[in-house]
Amino acid sequence: DVQLTQSPTFLSASVGDRVTITCRASQGINNYLAWYQQKPGKAPKLLIHAASTLQSGVPSRFSGSGSGTEFTLTISSLQPEDFATYYCQQLNSSPLTFGGGTKVEIE
Amino acid sequence: EVQLVESGGGLVQPGGSLRLSCVVSGLTLSTSWMHWVRQAPGKGLVWVSRITSDGKTVYADSVKGRFTISRDNAKNTLFLQMDSLRDEDTAVYYCARDGSWRLDPWGQGTLVTVSS
To answer: What is the DSSP letter of B26?
Structure first.
């Protein structure tokens, strides 16, 4: 199974900050990596797919990059509505797996 | 607009069974790949199962032999039959469409509580 390790687990930041979350895969996943945002009590929302493709309707302050086994999600200027938990997911092979999540909180 | 609505969650005793439903609209279920994902209280997302457009299924090891994913194309409904339930199956269960290497959209989730 492909293991995904997200870091950091917890992040405290201020509005306007640039934030970067890393997702490392235990083996190559052909860039079949997606990023999701989840707010309390809500379903996850797709932000990025294929490692760097912005989902339609998602603000351009979100971006994804990386290849091979190391990937990043960047929020260029954190907004109040961005405080949430973020997950990466690999879709290259079954079982599909998620990272452990990164909770972004207000500093 | 594609919408997914889950139902069927509730309280069940260990060893019991439950069948979850996911009614989809705005897409043709028979040509879609669909997934179930769960989230235990306060924990992260865990993938459970997938069914392809041609009916092939795959499961997480933790549910293999106990859960069955299926669909009724005429009713545009996805199912998850859950048998031999355990305490650790307690979670919110989400259905989601596989839109070519991404899960989108997701349903709102249905809570399953396994407890005596």
So the answer is: S
What would the pLDDT profile of A10-46 be if each residue is shown by its tens digit?
A: 999 999 999 999 999 999 999 999 999 999 999 999 9
SS3 A105: strand
- Smallest CA–CA separation between B1 and chain A, in Å? 13
User: Could B102 and A55 be called an inter-chain contact, meaning their C-beta atoms sit closer than 8 Å?
Assistant: yes
* CB distance B52 to B15 below 8 Å: no
Q: Which of B102, B104, B106, B110 to mutate to test the interface with A (most CBs of A within 10 A)?
A: B102
Put simply, the answer to whether A49 touches B101 (Cβ < 8 Å) is yes
pLDDT tens digit sequence for A92-105: 999 999 999 999 99
| Exposure class string for B36-63: b at 16+ Cβ within 10 A, else e | bbbbeeeeebbbbbbbeeeeeeebbeeb
- Residue A68: both structure tokens together: 């091979």
Contacts of A87 in chain B (CB under 8 A): 44-45
> Across the interface, do B47 and A95 touch by the CB < 8 Å criterion?
yes
Alpha-carbon distance B114 to B41, whole Å?
12
Burial of A7 (0-12, 13-18, 19+ CB in 10 A): middle
